[in-house]
Amino acid sequence: MTPDFRGQITLDGPSGTGKSSVARAAATRLGAAYLDTGAMYRAATVAVLDAGADPEDAAAVATVVAAARIEVGTAADTEVVRVDGVDVAVRIRGAEVTRAVSAVSAVPAVRRRLVDQQRALVAAADAVVVEGRDIGTVVLPDATLKIYLTAAPEARAQRRAAQLGISDPAEVAALAVDLRRRDQYDSSRADSPLRPAADAVIVDSTELDREGVVDRVVELARSAVGARP
Ligand SMILES: Nc1ncnc2c1ncn2[C@@H]1O[C@H](COP(=O)(O)OP(=O)(O)OP(=O)(O)O)[C@@H](O)[C@H]1O
Ligand SMILES: Nc1ccn([C@@H]2O[C@H](COP(=O)(O)O)[C@@H](O)[C@H]2O)c(=O)n1
Known about the structure:
The two termini are 17 Å apart. The chain has two domains: 1-15 and 129-222, 3-Layer(aba) Sandwich (Rossmann fold), CATH 3.40.50; 33-124, Rossmann fold (3-Layer(aba) Sandwich), CATH 3.40.50. The strands form two sheets. It has a five-stranded parallel sheet with strand order 2-6-1-7-8, with helices on both faces. Helix 4 (95-105) packs parallel to helix 8. The chain contains nine helices and eight strands. The chain is globular. The chain is of the alpha/beta class. It binds adenosine-5'-triphosphate and ligand L45E5XJ5. Adenosine-5'-triphosphate binds next to helix 1, helix 7 and helix 9. It is found in: Cytoplasm. This is Cytidylate kinase.
């Protein structure tokens, strides 16, 4: 009989490749917890914007984030994201936060603080799927299974457009530009840049639908457990 999954699955990759939706669905199928680390950086960005700090001012960002209470849930079926007790689950997905988040997440003091919190949340779970940009490389270098999700830029822009109900070609092109800008920022920062871990399995989702990717992740998770000594 296939054993239940126990351990940590990391799911990293560029923006719009399907990390959140795939990680959440895979966690549900595996009976695992789910941690959206992007939501934590987005919540930190809400704190920065509300404090009136400039997201490009690293010292100001570090001061604001050090004082903010950031809470995220780890249940796959509910989204909990709070800053200082206020529910920001909807607000973190807005354009203002999306524009500023890469600058905030590039600040090393912000990363140190949130990575500590991420490791504590992971330590509390027997089985967990964690998605982000640096999970396999920095946060959980000894994870049970590491996956790096990719997809062609055009597919990613189309998916994001469908998600937002956008069909105007000029607006789709603007979405593609924003995805590229964020990937460029996230891949070129000095601290924990976006890149695949040396031991990550690369999954290209361009030609797969969402369920196909989830099937692949679940299959890889079951083989990883089976392959344990
Ligand atoms: N394989 C797929 N085929 C088609 N659509 C997909 C696929 N995977 C995910 N999607 C859809 O693409 C959109 C973007 O997915 P999602 O938000 O999960 O990506 P992400 O990598 O977490 O993005 P970001 O890093 O910007 O938060 C969602 O609407 C999702 O349902
Ligand atoms: N481990 C991570 C996760 C996210 N980021 C930064 O947050 C931004 C938002 O992430 P989403 O997955 O919610 O789109 C992302 O663009 C990164 O700047 C990170 O640095 N590390």
